[in-house]
Amino acid sequence: MLKIFGTDGIRCKVNQEPMSPDTCLKIAKVAGYILSKKTNKKNRVVISKDTRLSGYLFEPLITSGFLSVGMDVVLVGPLPTPALPMLIKSLRADMGVMITASHNTYEYNGLKFFDSKGDKISKSLEKKIEEIIYDQKKYSFISTLKKESGKAFRLEDARGRYLEYLKSKLDEKIELKKLKIVLDCANGATYNVAPILFWELGYDLITINDRPNGRNINKKCGAVDIRELSKKVIEVKADIGFAFDGDGDRILAINEKGGEIDGDKIIALFAKNYLQNKKLNKKTVVTTVMSNLGLENYLREDLGIKLIRTKVGDINVISEMKKNSYILGGEQSGHIILGNYIKTGDGILAALKIAEILSSTGLKSSKLFDLYKSIPQTKINLAIKNELNNRLNNKINRIIKKYNTNSKNLRILIRKSGTEPLIRILVEGKISENVANISKTLDKEIKKILNDK
User: Fold this and answer.
1) 52 and 131: one domain?
2) Nearest CA among 203, 19, 6 for reference residue 106
3) C-alpha angle 107/111/115, rounded to 5°?
4) pLDDT number for residue 408
5) Which residues lie across from 255 on neighbouring strands?
6) Measured between alpha carbons, how far is 421 from 335 in angstroms, rounded to an integer?
7) Are 21 and 105 found together in one domain?
8) Are residues 232 and 266 in the same domain?
9) Are strands 405-406 and 410-416 parallel, antiparallel or unpaired?
10) Which of 300, 278, 301 is CA-nearest to residue 287?
């Protein structure tokens, strides 16, 4: 049975399974049916999307599926993913669906499902949806139900609601300086939100990659490629630059010298700030296995903060935070979860709070983020061009078992990506030469397996 849900919702290339029109219609029907069974009242679902071309295909399909089982649909158009949980609560909705493939290019799309509390739906519900879709008898029962159709309408002020929500999270005690800021919107869902917000707050603003055409989302820009932003920050002599990904739940930054500020450095800044302001619940931060050992050492040795690592994926970080009431977590890739404000990663909110700290300290951004020295780290992505058979899978698993280590001298992680057809390799160690050598060895060995027919 083909697995529909991955590590974070559903995602693959458009018109491939499970992101085919037929399967997406089935997913909406089944999800709507399961939800409708729990209550006699009329259910409501909010549907949002990013700016990729295939959103025009999947928005009406998903809408039709929910309408067919009697649910009302509220369409809010292109908005960042973190706006959806807020709108679900604001509209007293029972579910939300974000049509997005996050940081992937436009050839991909996907679905993220949220429950009435604004949380990602449970794994048990995902499994239940999959089981019904692949059970012809059960699905036929749902598809032939004589239900009165629901209604669909478009909410015109959704963006305004999200803007006001973000403004409400600002600290009124901090006087914002007229910083020069460059925003890279990745031609994605932040394009019609972030520039308006930062302009309204009085910042000296320059915006790039804010002209989505359906095909240029995440294309050599935004959080997946910060080179253009780095050049722009230096060119206009900006104080800082912020790069979002396609659906706006990730952020990376660039200091005034053009240097990259990754998610680890951003987490370190918030950890220090939260600790100073006595906001850091249980003196604990949650990240993934990908975070740099330099961050862990800084938190433990300089700040006395415990670091908990999870599997890769912001959903795993959020789950750990929720389970133990931690309020700060994130990923090196730029998911920053400020749990005292919102339950999910929000790139715009993180940028606003960084700008606040920058204003209150009066420091240059390069100095503000100069908190620790990163341990040398190499990351390699190897494309899986053909579907791996059992023999090749077993070979890769043997390599993973052989090399995956976690010691003081070297840390190696090899894994299959949960969002793209890639093998991801991370090598980290105190001696750059050792890191480079083992990286080359791993690259060669795994490429040999991937090219083996």
Assistant:
1) yes
2) 19
3) 165
4) 60
5) 240
6) 21
7) yes
8) no
9) antiparallel
10) 300
Are 192 and 253 contained in the same domain?
yes
> Would residue 356 count as lying in a domain?
no
**282 contact partners, CB below 8 Å, separation of at least 6:** 306, 324, 325, 326
Q: What is the tally of helices (H) and strands (E) in the chain?
A: 15, 19
pLDDT tens per residue, range 167-200: 999 999 999 999 999 999 999 999 999 999 999 9
Q: What's the whole-model pTM score?
A: 0.93
Buried b (16+ CB within 10 A) or exposed e, 325-358: ebbbbbbbbbbbbbbebbbbbbbbbbbbbbbbbb
Overall domain count for the chain: 4
Q: What is the pLDDT of residues 216-258, one digit of tens each?
A: 999 999 999 999 999 999 999 999 999 999 999 999 999 999 9
Question: Pick from 261, 288, 321: which residue ends a domain?
Answer: 261
Q: Which two tokens stand for residue 295?
A: 């961050």
Whether residue 412 is found in the same domain as residue 385 = yes
Backbone angles phi, psi at 6, to 5 degrees: -105, -150
Whether the Cβ atoms of residue 69 and residue 45 lie closer than 8 Å to each other: no
Q: Which CATH number do you get for residue 292? A: 3.40.120.10
Which residue shows structure tokens 């989505």? Answer: 212
User: Which among 66, 69, 68, 100 has a CA at the least distance from the CA of 83?
Assistant: 100
Domain that holds residue 446: 377-450
Same-domain check for residues 20 and 48: yes
Supply the DSSP symbol for 301: I
Which residue numbers are catalytic? 102
